[in-house]
Write a structure and sequence with these properties.
The chain is an alpha/beta fold. It contains 11 helices and 11 strands. The strands form 2 sheets. A 7-stranded parallel sheet has the order 7-6-5-10-8-11-9, with helices on both faces. A 4-stranded mixed sheet has the order 1-4-2-3.
């Protein structure tokens, strides 16, 4: 019977009573929320995740570019003494505590003491083991600071300051630091103005390269190019001839006219030679005549031969 239902909260009248309001939520929900933010700022969006990852990488890579170079370590008594004898730049010599001193240790300490820029530090064996990753350091560790590479354009400035036509060497795929050091030494010997190496898959100015250069790396700049092909094209726009060394080159290096003016000599690896893209950029591909039994020369020797010929042509000898 109406009015006597046992169910709770059952409406027993057609009259509407007071209802609970939304508190303005519905009205606020209809209000505008402004322009839609870009995808990079929307949480959970793929572009937002990519932007966050890029920001994290830029915190460890200055400017978001190449990784910050790290110091190199020369370990072992003989390598450390040889590096100090050759004048390899160093900023610290770590000596193991309670080391059994011999002539090599004494010489290393004496050589390091002569250079004000080298800090002498004593460290326990466990610390040297950690620094070197467990290598047999024999109680001596020499720290080499990262090399300060020049920009490829800086080499043109060096030639202009000397009032000379640029004579440069570019290395394509040369991965042995000793070859790089030998090229630097030949560039210094025959009046060149610098060496260019690509950023990837190439030898760098390590302690080994410094030693092979016999100290000339302190005077001859080494530039690092992000892309060697583009660097060579930029040199061409600046008026340089690009001469690539190749066993099947169409010209011989002897008396080559291009060596008398602004020129960059490109030397490839002994095994593979010039890469395809670099070879296509070259204005001239030249060969070194070899009447003997050898079929090829390593990069250091080949560069020395061509630099000598360039110096001979330029001086009119």
């Amino acid at each position: 019977m109406p009015g006597n239902s046992p169910r709770r909260n059952r409406r027993t009248s057609n009259k509407k009573g007071a209802t609970v309001g939304s508190g303005g939520k519905r009205r606020r929900g209809l209000e505008g929320k402004g322009p839609t933010p870009p995808a990079e700022m929307r949480p959970g969006h793929a572009k937002q995740r990519a932007a966050a990852a890029k920001a994290r990488r830029s915190q460890t890579r200055p400017g978001g570019g190449r990784p910050k170079p790290t110091a190199e370590l020369v370990v072992g008594r003989n390598p450390v003494v040889e590096a100090l004898r050759e004048g390899v730049p160093a900023n610290a010599l770590y000596v193991q505590q309670f080391i059994d001193s011999d002539d090599r240790v004494k010489e290393a300490l004496a050589l390091a003491s002569e250079h004000r820029g080298i800090r002498l530090a004593e460290a326990p064996r466990a610390e040297l083991d950690r620094m070197t990753g467990g290598l047999n350091h024999q109680g001596l560790v020499l720290q080499i600071p990262p090399y300060d590479y020049a920009h490829p354009e800086d080499l043109l400035d060096a030639a202009a300051d000397a009032g000379e036509a640029p004579l440069l060497v570019a290395l394509d795929g040369v991965t042995d630091p000793r070859n790089l050091g030998a090229v630097v030494r030949s560039v210094a010997a025959f009046g060149g103005h610098g060496v260019v190496v690509p950023e990837r898959r190439s030898a760098g100015m390590t302690a080994g390269a410094w030693k092979t250069s016999a100290g000339t790396a302190a005077r001859i700049p080494v530039a690092r190019a992000t892309n060697l092909t583009r660097a060579l094209q930029a040199y061409q726009k600046a008026g340089l001839q690009v001469v690539g060394l190749a066993a099947d080159g169409e010209a011989e290096i002897g008396g080559l006219a291009a060596l008398d003016g602004p020129v960059v000599l490109v030397v490839g690896s002994e095994g593979r030679g010039l890469s395809r893209l670099v070879g296509e950029v070259c204005d001239v591909r030249a060969r070194i005549p070899m009447p003997g039994a050898a079929e090829s020369l390593n990069a250091g020797v080949a560069a020395g031969v061509v630099l000598y010929e360039a110096a001979r042509i330029r001086t009119g000898r």
